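Is this the right way to post structure tokens for a design question? Let me know if I should format differently. Anyway, here goes:
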């Protein structure tokens, strides 16, 4: 919530800057070889260097006339404009610029840059509409992943005032909210795990003394074994696992294959051996419904920490 608001604010500032930049930017992209009688369209595409252009024959795009609405820096891109799912018109390069800016600001979701448009675009839509090159796809994926890691690991909403609080010491669950502390004139400390006011001695890395503050390790140790419906011959596999990539506790719904996709980091892993599906399948081809050759990994005794790239 908080992050979205701050992005909107930045967007408005950007719109404000548009006027001042216009003149110099525009003069930069005037085609140079006009006098030689060369094909104008061809030349202008070449001159703009980095610009990506839509294929006018692409039947899956909706082309529109008018301004490139995401061209906040007034680069005056030449490509045909196409409509995003929210109806706003973009060129592939203006869309790339905008999305890269969001990522550089720490966002991990793509939102339309127009004031009063709340549209959120999937990464698939951005890849397609921004004509992302394989290098850009890789760059964007890395940034999405590390931004997501950062915001899940280090930012939570204060249970009292709802402001965003950043945690700097990842080994301490007791976190002070500066806003509430200033407000009350005494330290307000809440628990990063159960999101209630902190109870008991601090610092602690496993839990606070609130009754329902259960440490994830405790859950991994005490949960019952899972009875798979469709995977054969499994014995002694716990029903809760910590995602090997990000550490989120994940349950398997017992049906279908042994793999699960982590709802937080989106990495698919094998619930039995705790390797990524890719690694598990490489070692055990087509073993979706059978036990891995390395067997069932024992109950985990530490929670993997999501590595920021
Ligand atoms: Zn929009
Ligand atoms: Zn607070
Ligand atoms: Zn707690
Ligand atoms: Zn995960
Ligand atoms: Zn496996």
């Amino acid at each position: 919530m908080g992050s979205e608001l701050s992005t909107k604010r930045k967007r408005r500032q950007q719109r404000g800057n548009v006027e001042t930049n216009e003149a110099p930017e525009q003069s930069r992209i005037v085609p140079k070889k006009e006098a030689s009688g060369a094909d104008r369209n061809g030349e202008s595409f070449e001159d703009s260097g980095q610009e990506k252009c839509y294929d006018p024959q692409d039947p899956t795009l909706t082309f529109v006339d008018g301004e490139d609405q995401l061209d906040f820096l007034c680069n005056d891109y030449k490509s045909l404009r196409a409509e995003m799912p929210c109806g706003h018109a973009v060129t592939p390069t203006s869309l790339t610029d905008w999305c890269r800016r969001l990522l550089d600001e720490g966002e991990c979701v793509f939102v339309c840059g127009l004031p009063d448009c709340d549209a959120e675009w999937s990464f698939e839509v951005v890849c397609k509409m921004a004509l992302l090159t394989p290098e850009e796809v890789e760059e964007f994926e890395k940034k999405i992943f590390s931004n997501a890691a950062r915001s899940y690991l280090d930012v939570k909403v204060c249970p009292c005032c709802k402001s965003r609080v950043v945690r700097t010491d990842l080994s301490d669950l007791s976190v002070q909210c500066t806003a509430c502390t200033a407000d009350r004139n005494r330290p307000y400390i809440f628990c990063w795990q159960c999101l209630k006011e902190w109870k008991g001695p601090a610092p602690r890395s496993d839990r606070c003394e609130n009754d329902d503050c259960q440490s994830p390790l405790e859950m991994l140790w005490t949960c019952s074994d899972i009875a798979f419906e469709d995977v054969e011959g499994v014995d002694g596999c716990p029903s809760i696992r910590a995602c090997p990539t990000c550490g989120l506790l994940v349950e398997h719904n017992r049906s279908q294959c042994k793999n699960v996709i982590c709802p937080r980091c989106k990495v698919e892993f094998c619930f039995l051996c705790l390797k990524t599906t890719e690694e598990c399948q490489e070692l055990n081809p087509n073993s979706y419904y059978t036990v891995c050759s390395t067997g069932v990994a024992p109950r985990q005794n530490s929670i993997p920490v999501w590595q920021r790239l």
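Format looks fine. Someone answered above. Worth noting: The CA atoms of residues 32 and 309 lie 43 Å apart. Residues 1-49 have pLDDT under 50 and may be disordered.
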